Automatic annotation (TrEMBL):
It comes from Labrys neptuniae. Pfam families: cNMP_binding, MS_channel_2nd. The lineage of its organism: Bacteria, Pseudomonadati, Pseudomonadota, Alphaproteobacteria, Hyphomicrobiales. This is Mechanosensitive ion channel family protein. The keyword Kinase does not apply. InterPro entries: cNMP-bd_dom, cNMP-bd_dom_sf, LSM_dom_sf, MscS_beta-dom_sf, MscS_channel_2nd, RmlC-like_jellyroll. It is found in: Membrane. The chain crosses the membrane at residues 6-24, 31-53, 73-95, 107-127, 133-149. Keywords: Membrane, Transmembrane, Transmembrane helix. Residues 343-445 form the Cyclic nucleotide-binding domain.
Length: 494
């Protein structure tokens, strides 16, 4: 019969082992606190093991079979709990966060080796079984398994290389061999999972992706550079076309101003010339909308400057009016400009022609101020060419409201109500505008109730927009100005 003191110490060691196991089930925060508590409990457990069974590598077991079995169980727990503590410390040593979404292949590999060592130690020291024969047998089994699992092992070792190099992490957008792009949602030992833009999940083995050309769209930043190509009639002067393409880029929301968009003549031909517009967006998600908006602005510029847009492959029907010779910053006739403005749809073609004869053509140089905030502007301004920028200063904070290009108009708020200018209008490029004065427009407004109602509706929308803009500027944090073309159109036109 074992002494009472030994039984008491065995019971205490068993209870302490249960507490140590329970400690790993508690989500101590921060992680080092859980490790510290576990280390302290393990030290106490080690002292008790030394008292009841001696060294775990050379245990001294009691003659009583039941007590010896108890001792073996506690020593086996000591080896397993020691391995568990070592595995818990590994992430701290390797500077890996437990909640990280990155693959912990290195720590997982070391953890597996640690547990394997603990199991072999239990077999050898606790149960006194020959380990050499076991290792020899396991070596033969390992060779057989390696031959049967060549592809899987290739994926595993490729995954280890990924874990060491970290060429991409969960959340990165990658492109693979130019075939598809997507966002990485999971990385494991065997494969990576990629969510494509079509919301499909693609599983790619690590051995395959290690041999592929992978483009990481998220590093060194999420910025995406791209370009579009357009072709137009070769009779259009290249220097003017390049200028109009630059205007189109300035009028396109989401294009970054740094690096600035660039334009170049890509190819010349007997009937068509091709041009490239290079640009950058902040994120890949913006790329599709930015391309669509940019091409729409190109169509707008070509339409208002009489340039034929041509498909170089099919030589399709020209879009817009044909004009063989272009002068510097030449524009559509005033009556055609009025016909494109929704405000004047109520007028007959003859009335628009009569009204266009009263429009005054003006040229603005780049960086010239057309209207200042707080000043008065009692005319309707129609933009025929170039890019204008509207900005407001509210409580000493200036912000850009939007940009205007060919076909846009403004000034009806001051023309109808006599209110001072709500913002400043600056010419970003050389511009051509047409001015329609109040004294020339008033007789038409009086004679055409539909036109007067359209102007009043536009003024109400402008006043509502100003109220929202002022409220937003009051509470918003200062930041980089945005280009809200839709807002400026809602403000200045119907």
């Amino acid at each position: 019969m074992a002494p009472v003191s030994l039984l008491s110490e065995l019971i205490l060691a068993t209870a302490l082992a249960a507490v140590l196991i329970f400690n790993w089930r508690i989500a101590w925060q921060p992680a080092w606190l859980r490790i510290g508590v576990a280390a302290g409990l393990f030290c106490l457990f080690t002292l008790l093991i030394l008292r009841v069974a001696g060294m775990p590598a050379a245990p001294m077991l009691d003659s009583d079979t039941r007590i010896a079995t108890w001792q073996r169980g506690l020593i086996a727990l000591w080896w397993l709990l020691g391995a568990r503590l070592t595995v818990g410390i590994l992430p701290l040593i390797l500077w890996q966060k437990r909640e990280s979404s990155q693959p912990k292949i290195a720590s997982d590999l070391l953890a597996g080796l640690t547990y394997l060592t603990a199991v072999l130690a239990i077999v050898n020291f606790v149960f006194d079984l020959p380990v050499r024969a076991l290792l020899a047998t396991s070596g033969i089994i390992a060779v057989v398994l390696a031959l049967a699992l060549q592809n899987t092992l290739a994926d595993v070792f490729a995954g280890i290389a990924v874990g060491i190099e970290h060429p991409y992490v969960v959340g990165d957008r990658i492109g693979i061999d130019g075939s598809f792009e997507g966002v990485i949602v999971q990385i494991n030992w065997r494969s990576i999972h990629v969510r494509t833009d079509g919301n499909d999940i693609v599983t790619i083995p690590n051995s395959l992706i290690s041999k592929s050309r992978v483009i990481n769209r998220s590093r060194p930043s999420t910025r995406r550079d791209d370009s579009v190509q357009v072709a137009c009639d070769s009779t259009a002067r290249p220097d003017l076309v390049l200028e109009y393409l630059r205007h189109a880029a300035l009028l396109t929301p989401k294009l970054l101003s740094s690096p600035a968009p660039g334009t170049s003549l890509a190819r010349i031909g007997a009937r068509t010339n091709s041009y490239d517009i290079s640009f950058s967006v902040a994120h890949t998600d913006h790329l599709g909308a930015a391309k669509s908006a940019l091409l729409g602005q190109v169509l707008r510029q070509f339409h208002y400057h009489g340039i034929r847009l041509v498909n170089p492959g099919a030589m399709s029907t020209p879009i817009g009016p044909v004009q063989v010779s272009l002068g510097p910053l030449e524009t559509l006739p005033p009556e055609q400009l009025l016909g494109d403005i929704p405000l004047f749809r109520e007028l007959s073609p003859k009335q628009r022609v009569d009204l266009s004869t009263k429009m005054i053509k003006r040229h603005l140089e780049a960086m010239a101020t057309l209207a200042s905030q707080g000043g008065t502007l009692s005319s309707l301004i129609v933009v025929a060419s170039g890019v204008l920028e509207a900005s407001r200063t509210i409580r000493d904070h200036s912000h850009v409201v939007g940009r205007l290009g060919p076909g846009d108009h403004f000034g009806e708020l001051g023309l109808i109500t006599g209110a001072p200018n709500a913002g400043t209008i600056l010419a970003l490029t050389r511009c051509i505008i047409f001015e329609l004065r109040k004294e020339d427009l008033d007789p038409v407004l009086a004679a055409e109730p539909g036109l007067a109602e359209a102007f009043e509706a536009s003024v109400r929308r402008g006043q509502a927009f100003l109220a929202r803009d002022e409220a937003a500027a009051t509470y918003a944090q200062p930041g980089p100005p945005a280009q809200f073309l839709a807002q400026i159109r809602a403000f200045f036109k119907t």
